[in-house]
Give the backbone structure.
Amino acid sequence: MANSIKYKEELLSVGDTVDVDYKIKEAENKERIQQFSGILLKVKGDTDANRMITVRRVSKSGIGIERIFPLASPSIDNIKVSKKSRFSKARAYFIRNLSQKKLRQKLYREKSA
């Protein structure tokens, strides 16, 4: 499927809320882990060597921040899914123009039969 991948036994799907822990080098021998939490917008790449994910979050001041993470990078420590969505498309670009309330309704609502 084009909208989901497996990363270290964790199934990542477009629309899920993910927590990406990545390492930041601060000084010569100082390193810390920072967390970037947001919604998975897209999965890019066909092989494990060039696969990348785009994660979007909204800052406290209301500005949207998108970050691209190459999955083969040694600076990524861990990726964890914090909330699963019911979204089934390959890209979730439409969430850029939505409010938080509309976003929750679209991504996390239960499908009615």
The beta strands are 4-7, 10-13, 17-25, 31-44, 52-58, 64-70, 76-83.
